[in-house]
Amino acid sequence: MPFSIPTPIAWTADRAVRILDQTLLPQEETYRDLDSVEAVAEAIRMLRVRGAPLIGIAAAMGVVLAGKRGSGEAGKVAGQRGREAAGQHQLDWVIHACDILAGTRPTAVNLKWALDRMRRRAKEALEQSEDLEQSLFEEANAIWEEDRAMCRRIGELGASLTPAGATICTICNAGALATGGIGTALAPVYLLQERGAAPQVVVPETRPLLQGSRLTAWELTRAGIACTVIADGMIASRLRLGDVACVIVGADRIAANGDVANKIGTYGLALAAREHGIPFYVAVPSSTVDLATPDGAHIPIEQRDQGEVVNWRGSPIAPEGVRAWNPAFDVTPAELVTAIITDRGIVSAAELSRLPFTVHRSPPSHLSPLTSHPSP
Questions:
Q1: Is 175 found in the same domain as 311?
Q2: What are the helix (H) ranges across the chain?
Q3: How far is residue 136's CA from residue 94's CA, in Å, rounded to a whole number?
């Protein structure tokens, strides 16, 4: 069966940002065009765009919109105060946009990483008298293309750990909907399917927003990959059956000691995997490893609205007035992680600092520019 992998983000012909609104899946496959930094920030905050790598890409594209808007404003300033003042005015627009976007999701380190790159590129462009808007556009595309290559490499390495016909358990969504390519945790699944190895995937629903049942199951089904949805409370019983070869999850941040922040429920899945002797792998691009954060206790955990727990799409599922606790992520200690699969290699938590983390601005030469714009 031919692959049908979704494209969650793209440029439109006039360089607006087109996203697949993931809050509406699986019932509606709706695309939205975003033409301002504020619209991109809202999309990230409301999880219309989600997944650590994709958040970074979306934020970088949002900065391009700021550069575009700043270009128009700079033209007015140039006529009044000169070209140098106009350039600084445009740069101020970009820095302000980065600040807005940085406040949307605190846990995903890819967001900060991408915005730091965009800030640096904007300052370089101003210092070198380059076209700021075009420079930002090229940098955002480089971030996107690098992520696509990272996903492919993660898939190749992860597939080497997984036998043909294996049943793999994941959580939340770390597939094409969460990245600029074929995903992180799901990348090995896609590579195995491509090679005719017929993988199967166990998908916990991932409360409270059901990113497993709504997104991962939708994505895998669309790609012709067999999957089974289970409720979160069934995880330990499902692993006890003995047919799951491994667990592969993504991450929003990995601390220097190997502690992993990922969607709430990952910690429990890791505990169940250890109890049943099942390898627990974390698949991430190298940009998700944050060597500046010493351990999981120093990772900021996003606390989301209580309404996400006690309501489902406007309908109450708990008594009125009851309190709820809603952390978006939990931290899995490094000792529960069998290995970390990155685009730079497969390592244990203790070996993270040995990885080469230099990020190259120029995209790999074999990749074509990602300038397509999917039809709504």
A1: yes
A2: 37-45, 52-81, 83-102, 109-127, 132-159, 187-194, 211, 217-222, 235-240, 266-275, 307-310
A3: 10
Biggest CA–CA distance in the chain, Å, is 73
State pTM to two decimals: 0.86
CA angle 209-212-215, nearest 5°? Answer: 90
Per residue in 162-197, pLDDT (tens digit) is: 999 999 999 999 999 999 999 999 999 999 999 999
Torsions phi, psi of 145, nearest 5?
A: -65, -40
* Domain count for the chain: 2
Last residue of one domain, picked from the residues 148, 164, 198: 148
Domain final residue pick, 91, 123, 148:
148
In a domain, 363, yes or no: no
From residue 53, alpha-carbon distances to 162, 173, 177, 190 in Å are 23, 12, 10, 18
Q: Which residues of 122-153 are buried (b: 16+ CB within 10 A; e: fewer)?
A: beebbeeeeebbebbbbbbbbbbbbbbbbbbb
Query: In which domain, by residue range, is 43 found?
Result: 9-148
> Are residue 168 and residue 39 in the same domain, yes or no?
no
Direct distance between the N- and C-terminal alpha carbons of the chain, in angstroms, rounded to an integer: 24
Band (pLDDT 50/70/90 cuts) for residue 373 is very low
* Catalytic positions, written as ranges: 252
Q: Return d(Cα 140, Cα 337) in angstroms, integer.
A: 32
Q: What is the pLDDT of residues 68-81, one digit of tens each?
A: 876 655 555 444 55
CATH classification at residue 280? 3.40.50.10470
Considering the domain architecture, whether residues 40 and 123 belong to the same structural domain is answered as: yes
Residue 65 CB burial class (10 angstroms; 0-12, 13-18, ≥19): buried
| Nearest alpha carbon to residue 8 among 278, 194, 215, 291 | 215
247-272: burial string, b at 16+ Cβ within 10 Å, e else? bbbbbbbbbbbbbbbbbbbbbbbbbb
The encoded tokens of residue 101 equal 């976007």
For residue 176, what are its two tokens? 């094409």
